[in-house]
Structures are given as structure tokens and as C-alpha cells.
Amino acid sequence: xxxVQPEYKNQATATLLELVKSRRSYYGLKAESPVSDDxxxxxxxxxxxxxxxxxxxxxxxxxxxLKEEHQKVWDIxxxxxxxxxxxxxxxxxxxxxxxxPKLNSFRAAYGTVLFFxxxxxxxxxxxxxxxxxDKFNPFALESNAMSQFLVWTxxxxxxxxxxxxxxxxxxxxxxxxxxxxxxxxxxxAQLVFGTPTAEPxxxxxxxxxxxxxxxxx
Length: 217
Prior knowledge:
Largest sheet: 5 strands, antiparallel
CATH topology: NADH Oxidase
Number of helices: 7
CATH class: Alpha Beta
Distance between the termini: 11 Å
Number of strands: 5
CATH superfamily: NADH Oxidase
CATH architecture: 3-Layer(aba) Sandwich
């Protein structure tokens, strides 16, 4: 593959790709923000509005939690894990030395974005296009993943660090109850963000030649 830097017609293309390249998983985070809460809200709201979805089904649902509301998510996760320890499903030592410190590190951040998919809203499109009915749930997850990536990248561009977590279905019921969310919203991922306190780890790449091919050039 060639390594010559291309000349983009629009400089915004180079900026976008640089943001994609610089996005990383930050685990050392503190409860401070380099921007206003309105900026954060705008980033998340725009992702909900503008990320594409199959047949424009718009199945993603997103909840932004800041400060004390954010902390509640990880209190719920800690309590759920404590229940697993009490039931004998998770070793107590493992929880105390590994799992609990990790969950507390998430709690120490500034905010969490909860990403949901409303699969129930797909019923009409599944009926209309019955031949493809089994494809719409995966399509909805793909759209949701695009939202996750967009919010993650945009927050990092504004000076945050972030990491993506998946604690479903362990925390789902209590999340729905705590914020009185519709039962049809199915939790998919949790994006934790805050001001970085440490650099991310090294990023390793499998050979691009094994993952990317060009024909017709």
C-alpha cells in the first residue's frame, strides 16, 4: 500500500481523519470538563439527529448523564457486582482487587453517555419488508455503534478522554427504573468521559495488507 500523503480537496477531510486516528481509550479520568455542559449536550444531540440509520428508522436512543447523575450509573454497577459476589458467581478477591477499582475509576469521571436501541420501533418496517425482517435488528446496532464512535471522537476533540463499556444486561433493569426510561429501550453501551489524568496505552495494528485491498486503481 502506498504511504504518500494525499492532497484532499477539502481540508476538513484531513482534520476528520486526524481526529479518527487520535481517538483512544482513556481509563485515567477525573470529574472535570474542559468545555461547558452545553457543548457536551450539543455533541450528543447532534449525533442522535444526524447519524444515519437503515431506512431512516432512527432507532438509537441516547441519555446523557453528568456529575452526580453519572455517578449513579457506576453505583448501580458496583451494587450489581456485589450481588454477584454474594451469590458466589464472582470471587470476592477478584471483585475487591480488580473489578471494584475499575468501576470506581469510571465513577470518578465527569459523565456517561448511555446508548440504547429501541427494537420495538422496528415492527412496522419489519412487517413492510418481511423478506429482510431478520436484518433490521443488526442494522439498528450498526447505527447505534456509529453514534457511539461519533460522540467518542467529538468529545476527545474537545479535550476529553473516554472509554466505552458494556455492562448489559447486568445494570439494565436498575438503569431503566432510576431514570424512568421506556421499557423498549435496550441498553447497548456506556461511554465514560472526563478530563484525562493519564496517557492511553500503546495502540497496536494488525498488518493493513491483511485487512484492506484495492482493485481498479
